[in-house]
Amino acid sequence: MQPFASRAALSAAAALAAFSMLMVPAAHAAGGAFPDKPLRLVVPFSPGGGTDLIARAVGIGMAQELGQPVVVDNKPGGGTIIGTDNVAKAAPDGYTLVIATFAHAVNPSLQPKLPYDTDKAFAPVVMLGRSPNVLVVRTESPYKTVQDVIQAARAQPGKISYASQGPGTSAHLAGELFKSLTRTDLTHIPYKGAGPAITDLLGGQVDLMFATASAVGNLLESGKLRALGVTTAQRSTSADLARVPTIAESGVPGYVAESWYGLFVPAGTPAPVIARLNAAATHAVKSDAFRKRAESEGLTIAPGTPEDFARYVRAEEGRWSKVVKDAHISLN
């Protein structure tokens, strides 16, 4: 049985509903008929992970700008394919979006039989931001440095495991690239989202994780996890990660793997609608509330035009296609 809501909670809910209703006419005046109903933002991961947290923060800001609720819909599984396919088949009217990640650009190389054509099924809206992945272990782990992991992996091939939020995600490919460049054998354990992966990492069921900074920021700050290295070419500018060395400078030359977040809608969505969504998302990520959260989690805010985002994703597709091929990475 659900507990009864307090009188204060009911009053707050009523006030919020009234505020939302008041905002709708303003949205109509500014942008015409769109939007005149709630929007759905599909997150192709389970609740609680970094992508989910970013989506919810962006959704709040977009709702304030658009005057309509932005409802987060978690559809995990298939290395983001289940949720992404749901959006590919949605009406191209701007009311259904997907928050895409690194996996969006990599899945075409890993999954030759996708249920959609990545380059034709979607229209880019905006890049939200980029961030490093962080090689983390629980605080009780014997591994204190990247070199500790490499030495242990070479001494015990296949014995050390690393978690990811799903096949083909940045955490997975960051691990595969690490294996390839260090010539080690780590065992990949995929999960349906960062939340359950981190839970098992904390519980000792897995040894490592190349987690997104947004997913583990609070756990690093609280001391429940320890960061061994960041996956970007330069050290993070985040205060929490600034002292953490890059994996490249820790003895793995050439190692670079970047996470990113962006919004897509189904192909065929009208350009004026995409422009409205781009403006709302840009406003959301530039807000003080979002900036504060982003900076604490190592996220570099990087909005731009839909065309800017399209160019970035195409470059990522080309770069990781080569990595996947050269490292003989397969999900089969």
UniProtKB/TrEMBL annotation:
InterPro entries: BUG, Bug_dom1. Keywords: Signal. Residues 1-29 form the signal peptide. It comes from the Bacteria. The keyword Transcription regulation does not apply. The keyword rRNA-binding does not apply. Pfam families: TctC. Belongs to the UPF0065 (bug) family. This is Tripartite tricarboxylate transporter substrate binding protein. It comes from Cupriavidus pampae. The lineage of its organism: Bacteria, Pseudomonadati, Pseudomonadota, Betaproteobacteria, Burkholderiales.
